[in-house]
TrEMBL record:
PANTHER family xref list: ABC TRANSPORTER, ATP-BINDING PROTEIN (PTHR43335)
Superkingdom of origin: Bacteria
Family: Belongs to the ABC transporter superfamily.
Annotated ABC transporter domain residues: 3-228
Basic and acidic residues composition-biased segments: 294-307
Stated name of the protein: ABC transporter related protein
Region of interest called Disordered, as start-end residue ranges on this chain: 287-307
Keywords attached to this entry: ATP-binding, Nucleotide-binding, Transport
């Protein structure tokens, strides 16, 4: 059970959205990271069969996307970036409606999903009365209906607090080996503990891909903790890339990513995924397709960069 994409390319008019994106994912969570406009949504729409690429190919479990997509869609759960929920329906009513569209029995799955996602007490309230985060969880529940083998989720953790994000990520991942999950995020810390691998997109191209440890290692030797007087903070932020900052009365503790400028000293520290995410976006592009297969399995290829 593998998701394979090779050379996916998509343009909107003269604007390239994706250029030669390749990936290889087995069971587990592959997180697609990138800033707004990096091509995350375009990639996920292609993988969900909602959009055709201009070039390249993709397949899941041996079935090519270029053939009839209908059998594939029955195996895919998809959460788009934006989804309009019918405000007059309740979460339970909406999930029952979606289940009928999918040709599956809503019970007991619908109620179990609502309970697991912390929505059990809201199951019979109109959707229009829910908060943005609660509505997003209902939208996620519809993607999980039917226990799909491939989950494509665009920003599923948006609007959730820290505790909710960790719990929801565990639900998304499911039991080991059960499904392939591709989700997007622009916040590395959200997925660092729950993803098996990460793919970093920038301007429609792959900047890094591999296990979490592999990608973190790309920033080895490039992250320092620096202590500076508060009076120097503004100038330092102007010339340094900072992933974390702690302010005190008379000084600031900064986590600086990249070479330290002359006159600034710091203590080398182990990179986090956030550090590596900033680093690979700052260095000159050196794209190379990589693979991710399962939780904890090492990538068969590693990114080569001139650091």
């Amino acid at each position: 059970m593998e998701l394979i994409a090779e050379g996916l390319t998509k343009r909107y008019g003269d604007v390239p959205a994706l250029t030669g994106v390749s990936l290889h994912a087995g069971p587990g969570v592959l997180a697609v990271l990138g800033p707004n406009g990096s091509g995350k949504t375009t990639l996920l729409r292609i993988l969900a069969t909602a959009l055709r690429p201009d070039a390249g190919r993709a397949s899941f479990a041996g079935r090519d996307y270029a053939s009839d997509p209908r059998p594939l869609r029955r195996r895919i759960g998809y959460l788009p970036q934006e989804i309009d929920l019918p405000g007059h329906l309740t979460p339970r009513g909406f999930l029952h409606y979606v289940a009928r569209l999918k040709g599956i029995q809503p019970e007991p799955q619908a109620d179990m999903l609502l309970q697991d996602l912390g929505l059990g007490d809201l199951a019979n309230r109109p959707l229009r009365t829910l908060s943005g985060g609660q509505a997003r969880l209902v939208a996620l529940a519809q993607a999980l209906l039917g226990r799909p083998r491939l989950l494509i989720l665009d920003e599923p953790l948006t609007g959730l607090d820290t505790t909710e994000r960790a719990r929801v990520l565990r639900i998304i991942a499911g039991p080991p080996g059960e499904r392939v999950v591709v989700l997007s995020s622009h916040v590395p810390a959200d997925i660092e503990a729950g993803a098996a691998a990460v793919l970093v997109l920038q301007q429609g191209t792959v900047r890094a891909q591999g296990t979490i440890d592999t990608v973190r290692a790309l920033a080895a030797g490039q992250v320092h903790e620096v202590t500076i007087p508060t009076a120097d903070l503004e100038d330092t932020l102007r010339i340094c890339q900072v992933s974390q900052m702690t302010l005190h009365a008379d000084h600031a503790l900064l986590r600086v990513v990249g070479p330290l400028p002359p006159g600034l000293t710091g203590v080398p520290v182990t990179p986090t995924l956030e550090d590596a995410y900033l680093w690979v976006q700052a260095i000159p592009p050196h794209p190379q397709p990589l693979s991710h297969k399962g939780r904890g399995e090492e990538d068969r290829r590693r990114l080569a960069t001139d650091a």
